[in-house]
Every structure is written in structure tokens, then in C-alpha cells.
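Progress report, Aim 2. The chain analyzed during this reporting quarter is listed below.
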Amino acid sequence: MTTAHQLNMQFGIDGQLDFRMDSSGLIVAEISNTHASASLCLQGAHLMTWQPRSQSLPVVWLSRDAKMAAGKSIRGGVPVCWPWFGAHASEANFPAHGYARTVPWRVVESGSDPDGATRLTLRLKENENTRAQWPYACTLDLTVIVGETLRMELTTENTGESDFVISEALHTYFRIGDIGAVRVTGLSGCDYWDKVGGSTLKKQDGIIQFAGETDRVYINTAAECVIEDDKLKRRVRVAKSGSLSTVVWTPWTAKADRMGDLGQPDGWRAMLCVESANAIENAVKVAAGARHTLIVEYRAESM
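Predicted C-alpha cells for the chain:
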């Protein structure tokens, strides 16, 4: 296994990017530049935090009860859901949201952009277990650019001779003031699958506000979304490309209690998931020799 020292020798950037081993034994990349700070766990290529210098609180939320352990997803941050979103279509024992978020990735590139942002690219490491779940020749890269904005680029390249279909998401948890005092704009008029109490197709009428468990997959939309947060007096803009689904999720009290790692008793009230995805009818066919990239960029601004 590559050590944190070896990663610092090859990819570290003085004053910007440093690799360390967490007490759990997992390696974390710590990024700090003139624009923002961020942390990313190499297992799952899991961005855990992002806080622009202009913000007194993080924009990307990490549960205070988040646990880091080999083979386990971290609660909060930006889990990478790939090569399927939700439950596997036919194999009930395969992990929900795929395996990308729980396996090691390797660093393949780092650098500083001219504007002072920090760039880091990781590649999924395949093994016998992943190949048993996904028997296609491909590479999966995630590039994270930490600056005044946070940009994430998830690229699937089909290196084999047969086409395949993926569903995917950057499952971003946002830090908010209170779930009862935020709204999401940009999705009015969009169709969505309502996953609470069954799966029914509905149409969004106006802004999204929250008064109970919400689990919606908005389809056929590439629209920019905005989280308007009255309590924190900020807007978070979510702009994307290569994505035709947006997932909006909050667990509310009962589900949060069952999950147990959202920062009990009410940590869930300080987070909201708005996920850039390709799911259900927006699953993506990647032809042999082709590639597909999902790009999302987050920006925080004062209201």
C-alpha cells in the first residue's frame, strides 16, 4: 500500500496539499489554499469537507458521528455512487449505490491552477470483488478542484469492446442552518419520482420546501439548482453538466433515528442532500471506446 509519506513525495504541494494517515488507517488528503480548505479520503475518493474562506461554516457537511473504517462509506461529504444508483437491478446482495464509495482509489495527478485553486485526480482501483460485481473493462476518474468554487468531474471511460450502462451520482450533503428554513429553486415544472411511501411520478410545482421525509429523483433536467438558506443567509448554487437527474433528500426524524450516524439527536436538521446524478430513465449508455463525464460546480454566496 502506498504510504502518506510516498504520496507527499510524489503529489504533495507545499502549503496546499498534504496527505496524512487517519487514526482509522485510511489516508486523507488535506487541501488548504487562499480560496478554501477541504479534506478528501482516498477510500471512495470521498470528499468530506469544503469551506470557502468567505464562509464562516462549511458548505459541504460531514456528520459529527461519521465513522471512518475500511470498506465502509462515510456519512456526509460527497459519496461517489457508481456504477449503479440505489439498489442493484438484479443482485440484492450487492451494495446500494455501487461499490465506488467503499474501495480504495489511487492518486494519479495533482497540481495548482493559475488562479490558486488546487487540483487532485484519483482513479478507482479494481480488484476481484469489484470485477465480480462489474465485469466490464473501464476506468473511473474523479478530479476535484478546490477553490472559491468546488468543481468535481467524474469520468467513466469504456476501455472494452462492448457497451455498458451506468447510473451514478455525486451524493452531496450540504451544511444548512435548519431544514425548516431552506428552499430549493430551479426544479419547478420538472417530473420526479417520489420515493417516500412507494415510487410515484409527480410534477414539481414551484419551490421545494421541507416538512417531512423527502426522497425525490428529478428526471430529464440539467437545470442549475439553488439552495436558499435564510438562517445562514447564503445561497449555494449547484451547476452541472453531463447529468440529467437531480436527487433531493432529507431523512427527517424517524429515518434519521434508524440510521444512527447523522449526529444524534438532531444533526440531520443541519444537512440537505442535493445530488447531481444520472438515474432511472437517465442512466447512461457508454459505448465501447467512449467516455462520459458528469461535472458539477458548487458556489456559495451571501443573500
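The mean pLDDT is 96. The longest strand covers residues 291-302. These observations will guide the mutagenesis work planned for the next reporting period.
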